[in-house]
Write a structure and sequence with these properties.
Structural class: mainly alpha
Helix content: 25-40%
Distance between the termini: 51 Å
Order of helices and strands: EEHHHEEHHHHHHEEEHHEEH
Largest sheet: 3 strands, antiparallel
Strand order of the largest sheet: 5-6-7
Radius of gyration: 51 Å
Number of helices: 12
Number of strands: 9
Strand content: 5-15%
């Protein structure tokens, strides 16, 4: 089925060509001709009409509104602007004169005789340092190794006046924009001091220091050029350290034993329920155990008996052997049931790794 355009009387081989034609100027021109009851024109005739119109039309100046300082691409847009309220307001407004923009203010400069924290000015650097120390409690750290006091003061002054940075915060706090704001911040926060806590702060002003005088002096005399190292490989005296059962254990003079770090996993183990020392056969617990083992004794242990599952050495005497035998059976059943429940709980914890619950009937 061909794709056609009734207004232009043309056919297309694909819908893409038909849609492209409907967006063309030829189609819009033929639509207007069809409304006026005129026959359509072909693409060649339409192109010739456009060329003739372009060659015959005189060049037109671009419309511009001087009061509004705007330029328009078409005459219709310019006429719409002339009828707008904004254009009338601009015509009725008084003439505007362009004021020359003032030159940007010069950056404030601080000299070595100017106080870093206030507007005071001294006659010399020494007087300025005295003023900052007495009024603002300012001091220079490690002043004994300072070699360029003028340079460090000039650097701090440039940092405050030009960079607008607090000499203690070093740009870590909120941003400041003027010299007055920086001075007010340092006075209010008590930051009238040089940051000298971290290695980065020390390296920032390290060019003004010389710490070579604090280095240890090397001895160059011949007496100390050589040292006797014959006794370095001698073993320590026997009364100080000794090996334990193996080479992985040391025995201190106090008797304490130190194990090697490679055996840490074994030292951290603890075996609960295993007695470290054998039980005394004459103790009360041993006597109770022997009596309970005797079938003729009508004793029943309280709270589950003894050992790993028992508590204490308390027993109850039954009224007869049958009652004692029945009580022992109940105790054994309870003990076995508890062991089974503990085992099932342990297995449940191990296998409880499901991401979600899924009903098997819905699968």
């Amino acid at each position: 089925m061909p794709f056609t355009c009734q207004a232009c009387a043309v056919a297309f081989t694909s819908p893409e060509e038909q849609r492209a034609h409907h967006r063309s100027d030829l189609h819009r021109y033929n639509i207007k001709r069809r409304v006026a009851a005129l026959p359509p024109v072909t693409a060649a005739v339409f192109a010739q009409k456009l060329a003739d119109r372009t060659n015959d039309a005189p060049p037109q100046a671009t419309p511009r509104c001087e009061p509004c300082a705007k330029t328009y691409a078409t005459e219709n847009a310019y006429r719409s602007h002339l009828d707008s309220k904004r254009h009338r307001d601009n015509l009725n407004a008084p003439s505007r004169t362009i004021q020359p923009q003032p030159a940007p203010p010069e950056e404030p400069q601080l000299s070595s005789t100017s106080c870093l924290f206030c507007t005071a000015t001294s006659d010399s650097l020494d007087v300025n340092l005295t003023h900052m120390a007495s009024v603002h409690s300012f001091f220079i750290p490690d002043a004994d190794y300072l070699v360029d006091i003028t340079g460090i003061v000039s650097y701090l002054a440039e940092k405050i006046a030009v960079g607008n940075i607090c000499i203690y915060c070093n740009g870590k706090g909120r941003e400041l924009h003027t010299l007055e704001a920086v001075r007010k911040h340092m006075i209010d926060k008590g930051h009238c001091k040089i940051a000298y806590d971290t290695e980065v702060d020390k390296l920032e002003i390290s060019d003004y220091y010389d710490f070579t005088s604090s280095y240890p002096q090397k001895e160059t005399s011949d007496d100390h050029a050589w040292e006797d190292v014959d006794g370095e490989d001698d073993p320590p005296p026997d009364n100080q350290l000794a090996y334990g059962d193996t080479e992985y254990e040391l025995v201190l003079p106090s008797g304490a034993r130190i194990g090697h770090r490679s055996m840490k996993r074994y030292y951290a183990q603890s075996f609960h329920g295993i007695p470290v020392q054998p039980q005394d056969p004459n103790s009360g617990a041993a006597l109770v155990r022997r009596l309970l083992a005797d079938k003729n004794s009508a004793l029943v242990p309280c709270k589950g008996g003894f050992g790993a599952f028992g508590q204490g050495t308390q027993v109850v005497k039954a009224r007869n052997k049958g009652e004692a035998r029945e009580a022992g059976r109940h105790i054994r059943e309870f003990r076995d049931q508890r062991r089974r429940e503990d085992f099932k709980t342990k297995v449940g914890f191990v296998h409880n790794s499901q991401k979600h619950f899924r009903d098997p009937l819905l699968q």
